[in-house]
Design brief:
mainly alpha
Amino acid sequence: MMLYGAEDEEKWLAEGIAGDSNNLREALKYSAQMLSELRTSKLSPHKYYELYMRAFDELRQLEMFFKDESKHGVSIVDLYELVQHAGNILPRLYLLCTVGSVYIKSKEAPAKDVLKDLVEMCRAVQHPIRGLFLRSYLAQVSRDKLPDIGSEYEGDADTVMDAVEFVLQNFTEMNKLWVRMQHQHDFWPCRRYGACESFILFGDPELRPSIGLSGLQGPGRVREKQEKERSELRDLVMSKSETYRYIKECIQIEGVDLEMYKDNVLPRVLEQVVNCKDELAQYYLMDCIIQVFPDEYHLQTLETLLGACPQLQPTVDIKTVLSQLMDRLSNYAASSPDVLPEFLQVEAFGKLSNVIGKVIEAQADMPIVGVITLYVSLLTFTLRVHPDRLDYVDQVLGACDEKLCSRPKLEDSRATKQVVALLSAPLEKYNDIVTALTLSNYPRVMDHLDNGTNKVMAMVIIQSIMKNTSCISTADKVEVLFELIKGLIKDLDGTDQDELDEEDFKEEQDSVARLIHMLYNDDPEEMLKIICTVKKHIMTGGATRLPFTVPPLVFSGLRLVRQLQSQDGDVAGEEVPATPKKIFQILSETIEVLSSVPSPEMALRLYLQCAEAANDCNLEPVAYEFFTQAFILYEEEIADSKAQVTAIHLIIGTLQRMNVFGVENRDTLTHKATGYSAKLLKKPDQCRAVYACSHLFWVDDPDGIKDGERVLLCLKRALRIANAAQQMANVARGSSGPVILFVEILNKYLYFFEKGNPQITTSAIQSLVELISTEMQSDSTTTADRAATAFFASTLRYIEFQKRKGGVMGEKYDAIKV
């Protein structure tokens, strides 16, 4: 015994093709024969559908033949009786539906009576495949013949209900047939093999191998084939488009208003959905209900519709159904502001929130990703319909947090993405992180993310702040914000430092630094609290983060200091007085931590910035202390020669701008600076640092120091160092050294000469010009320093320019010969 194959199906399909005739007797005979082919159980649903469509085309022609009474000479009433004498039930009912269509059009009987008769008669066919196609045919031929209000087939006062009853009854029976296919395995073998073969297949294990099936394979293969055929049948007859059409007919009936829908249509459909107990059918029908009926109907019958959800089978994908419903309602709310009061009137949020909780309880095995997806949809609905109700938003987050707390830690990547979507929704809606910071359950939900995703979400929050230029203006909100982004400002438990990508880490910390710059409040007291709050959090960041996060905090503090330059001393009655001294104390403690990381170069720069701010506030002791700390760092922590050169020039430049120091303190600091300048490793670096120190003794301000003698001493000392560098180069390389140092010193001479330093004379400048010229000439046989030559030539042109310019300055330059 072999299973039937595709070739057999093609043969049986070909045998099912028949013709027709103008003779009524012959037409009915051949039609019955043709329709008898639809009784076959040998075709798959797909092949059966092909046969059905050919039969359908023939039945269309037959219907035209029945309409023309002159061709057959029999009244339609007699014809309706005549076709009921067909020998087999299936051909009889197809013919009856065809004649019934003509009967209704003739108006010789009320449409409701004919339709009721047809829908009841079709119950005689209970085979799932044959019955489904039969009822599909009935729905198609009766579609334009319903006794609707305004229709030519309208009857008495109850006509609308009759039309609805017909559509719902036919649809209900179709769904029962489709659902029945899942139980087809009870008699499936008999359909394929006959009673004897079925007994052999299931009754005698020794005979099973003789027909090619083992004891375990037989039922399994049959069940697999049955499920495949049911899916095919769903796609062919019970497809969404067809189901939508059947249900939609109820709405297209003119007399079906909201009250009838609420009292009759929806309860009948939901009763069928719940009672069918079939996972696939329940999902399909719920989806159809949501897609077909109008949004305003859904809103007004929300309690009834949602009441069916917890009664569905536990395996139904109810999250998708509810998500689609909430999406439709959200779009409906967005369509017009006038409909929003209706949502409040029916308490849509409360009902949706309640049913989601019940569904999750009823489906205990629902994956966590499904649970979160439901709350994402509910939150989206809430943000679109009730954007002003932050308590609703927080309630959704709290409910989600409660469900997450009862589950193990998130490990499903899909669930993690849904949590990110849940947390991102308020940010996208309000465009203001300040609003999200008022949601008490927001941080609790975020705590369920793994470390990596927590950092991603923290970046999303910071990017939202940057994009919308949100102002976080209170210490309490800063506290909540930094709790949210704690994955970026400190190492969370379980974080593997070796897995951190250097570029990603730098991008994250740069984002945190930009965020700190955006924290601001016009009230000095509140701003100081913000600074203290930020300091508390970033101090836990560790050695790798402090170089990124301390500088913006220090500059935020300096910005506050400049607001308070006119204040000094403590403010009575204030717990944390916002005075420059207090702020400088906090900044000093902060920078001290940075210097021990170690990141001495950054700490030194920040000390100098603070010293300059203290100078502007006229706080000499504070400024002196910052310089002291900077020198200590230079002495003890900065060992690299290049870093020393950069640091000493920063110290000299900052010290030159200071005007708060008295003579004693200034002398101490300038002495330190010149001493360290002369101790640099390389002679050229020494020379440049020493002549830079000359600016410490001549400040071009009305009240600035002008000590010409010490300026000259620095320049002469720089010349000696340059000369020593020249000699060392001659010994090492056998040629003259860097002449450019002399040219640079010459330019310093010219600067102080123009500024009126009496110690800088024309003779000194003349001597230096001649010295450089001599060095240039002695180096002419070797490769000269092109940069030095060009620099010197430019300097000489400048001298000539000043001489030609005339005036007081021209007279001063006349004595210099070039």
